[in-house]
Amino acid sequence: MYQERIILTPKDILEKEFKIDTRGYRPQEVDKFLDTIISDYEEMFALMREYERDKKSLIDENMRLKQEIRSLRTKLDVASESSGVSNVDLLRRLSNLEKIIYGDK
User: Fold this and answer.
1) Model confidence over 77-105: pLDDT tens digits?
2) How far is CA 65 from CA 68, 82, 87, in A?
3) Residues 17, 22, 28, 29: what is their CA dihedral angle, to the nearest 10 degrees?
4) Quick one: CA dihedral 61, 90, 80, 78, positive or negative?
């Protein structure tokens, strides 16, 4: 996803060639600075991959919790209808799951 928006890769930076003229920069300084940029880019890409994995994991967990809430609501409805009394344990668990997913409101 982010690869489409970022133009340079660490390899692009590493392989960049600059023309040198009499009034140009010192090649050693440019190389040292580019090495720092390459290192930062590599770290940034690693962090982005890690964040993408974390995001996917959180989305999967959120979906699982929402499915559990739907299941608990159904069980609560069935239990309430069959006994005429609401099931306190199911209601408490449902409330806790909703707080986790939606936050305290």
Assistant:
1) 777 677 655 566 667 777 788 888 887 65
2) 5, 25, 20
3) -100
4) positive
